């Protein structure tokens, strides 16, 4: 998708079809010209409504407000509505909220995210044909926008939305086509393209690093595990950030096998790791002035004679012993070792991990929202805020001492599941916290993306399949840190 930015009014620029976003409060403007037709079509400018006036080459899309989230959704809906049509180019005016160019960025993101479809396995492709989008800086509120500032937002939007779609592609790829070694190759290829360092640890090195819990989870799979480490290291970097992702290329549950209905979509259990790859891509392309390290534990959780078992006791990289009572709680085992490894390799100002860790997170907050956990309220709030600024939903879940006791083990240092059915997202987070060392304990946040990572019924700017959850939220947060001079430690 190419974007052209111009100061010319929409009427004077080329584009086979004009997209017109109508906000409830904005009825008087452009809307006037087709008012009768729109009324006849039953279009009432609500969010998620679209009306294609094919003879006029105009597409009207409703937006609840001029807020970025609503404009992003409206733009995504426009592209969805044009799927299957023959239009190749569109034109659109700019809709800013009091001249703020973030809404322009949101609109561009919406076009790219809404135009996405995954058709690798379809014989007959039905990809969006829209290739050219001309954006006029003509603005309904008649504010004049600085074209350079606007161009910068368009550029950023393209990088971020493309990175999100890159993540979506990885997650949507089937487990037989995307197993740990493939994930590592994708990381290496991407690193080469955008100028990141990339190292990949194979089983021999993983054993040397004493990542025995990760190796145990991987044992029954015919695909060997990998740990990927990507580095973005600009000169005079302000901060050092570590990202860690759960990359379960398939989660069958292991010997604690998932029921048939629950196993479908478990190709998406690599969403955290895939998000880390997407974030690193965007960080490199934006060339953010901060040092960022991305670690991914790429593993397949299968069954077989060599599988790890409930009743096993595993020793994690930091020496802690873990009683296994359920092999389906494997993500936390993989993350335990990768978190330890990441802390050994990098002394970071902040550590964020991304994982489709628990069904309990989906039960707790619904399938649109990520759960943010950790020991530092300020960092949790920072993630929640930046997620919202980026158009993702996130909410903080608080740890507590009582739930902490439920992961105690009679025979080992900690148990991999809780002794209660409730609060499973939090107990999983508290399990991870056992593998964060003292130095980092209040610099870490755990982001459970189990809800929004995979979309079965399209919503917002997310078509069916992987959403790329985590990418926009973290890039926004990293952009924010890159602007800051000082980090406030402790909260
Ligand atoms: N990958 C799953 C969590 C998951 C569930 C992600 C639904 C996305 C959608 C994870 O490995 C898992 O199976 N967790 C168990 C933990 C339980 C055994 C304590 C779960 O959530 O049931
Ligand atoms: Zn599992
Ligand atoms: Zn899992």
Automatic annotation (TrEMBL):
| GO biological process entries | proteolysis
GO cellular component labels: cytoplasm
Spell out the molecular function terms from Gene Ontology: manganese ion binding; metalloaminopeptidase activity
Q: Which reaction does it catalyse?
A: Release of an N-terminal amino acid, Xaa-|-Yaa-, in which Xaa is preferably Leu, but may be other amino acids including Pro although not Arg or Lys, and Yaa may be Pro. Amino acid amides and methyl esters are also readily hydrolyzed, but rates on arylamides are exceedingly low
Q: What class of enzyme is it?
A: hydrolase
What CDD domains does UniProt report for this protein, alphabetically?
Peptidase_M17 (cd00433)
Q: What is its EC number?
A: 3.4.11.1
Record keywords: Aminopeptidase, Hydrolase, Protease
Describe the location of the Cytosol aminopeptidase domain by residue ranges. Answer: 326-333
- Which PANTHER family does this one have? CYTOSOL AMINOPEPTIDASE, LEUCINE AMINOPEPTIDASE-RELATED
Q: Which family does it belong to?
A: Belongs to the peptidase M17 family.
Q: Which NCBIfam families match?
A: PRK00913.1-2, PRK00913.3-3
Q: Provide the protein name.
A: leucyl aminopeptidase
Q: What is the organism field in this record?
A: hydrothermal vent metagenome
């Amino acid at each position: 998708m190419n974007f052209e930015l111009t100061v010319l009014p929409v009427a004077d620029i080329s584009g086979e079809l004009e997209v017109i976003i109508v906000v409830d409060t904005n009825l008087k403007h452009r809307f006037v010209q087709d008012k009768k037709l729109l009324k006849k079509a039953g279009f009432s400018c609500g969010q998620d409504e679209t009306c294609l006036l094919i003879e006029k080459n105009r597409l009207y899309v409703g937006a609840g407000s001029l807020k970025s989230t609503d404009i992003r959704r409206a733009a995504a809906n426009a592209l969805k509505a044009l799927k299957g049509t023959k239009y190749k180019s569109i034109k659109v005016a700019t809709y800013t909220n009091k001249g703020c160019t973030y809404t322009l960025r949101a609109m561009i993101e919406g076009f790219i995210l809404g135009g996405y479809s995954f058709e690798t396995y379809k014989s007959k492709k039905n990809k969006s044909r829209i290739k050219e989008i001309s954006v006029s800086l003509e603005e309904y509120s008649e504010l004049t926008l600085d074209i350079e500032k606007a161009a910068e937002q368009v550029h950023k939007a393209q990088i971020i939305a493309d990175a999100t779609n890159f993540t979506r592609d990885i997650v949507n790829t089937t487990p037989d086509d995307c197993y740990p070694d493939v994930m590592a190759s994708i990381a290496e290829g991407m690193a080469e393209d955008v100028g990141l360092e990339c190292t990949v640890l194979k089983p021999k090195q993983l054993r040397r690093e004493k990542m025995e819990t990760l190796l145990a989870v991987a044992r029954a799979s015919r695909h060997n595990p990998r740990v990927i480490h990507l580095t973005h290291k600009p000169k005079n970097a302000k901060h050092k950030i570590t990202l860690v992702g759960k990359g379960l290329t398939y989660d069958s549950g292991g010997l604690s096998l998932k029921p048939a209905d629950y196993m479908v979509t478990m190709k998406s259990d690599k969403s955290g790791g895939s998000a880390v790859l997407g974030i690193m891509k965007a960080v490199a392309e934006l060339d953010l002035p901060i040092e960022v390290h991305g670690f991914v534990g790429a593993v397949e959780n299968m069954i077989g004679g060599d599988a790890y078992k409930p009743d096993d006791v595993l020793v994690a990289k930091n020496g802690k012993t873990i009683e296994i009572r359920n092999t389906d709680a494997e993500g936390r085992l993989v993350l335990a070792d990768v978190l330890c490894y990441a802390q050994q390799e990098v002394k970071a100002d902040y550590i964020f991990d991304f994982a489709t860790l628990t069904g309990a997170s989906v039960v707790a907050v619904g399938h649109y929202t990520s759960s943010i956990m950790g020991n530092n309220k300020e960092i949790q709030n920072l993630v929640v805020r930046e997620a919202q600024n980026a158009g993702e939903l996130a909410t903080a879940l608080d740890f507590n001492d009582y739930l902490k006791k439920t992961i105690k083990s009679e025979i080992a240092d900690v148990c991999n599941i809780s002794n209660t059915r409730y609060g499973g997202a939090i107990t999983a987070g508290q399990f991870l916290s056992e593998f964060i060392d003292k130095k980092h304990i209040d610099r870490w946040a755990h982001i459970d993306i189990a809800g929004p990572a995979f979309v079965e019924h399209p919503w917002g700017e997310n078509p069916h399949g992987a959403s790329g959850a985590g990418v926009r939220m973290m890039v926004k947060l990293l952009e924010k840190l890159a602007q800051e001079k000082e980090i406030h430690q402790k909260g």
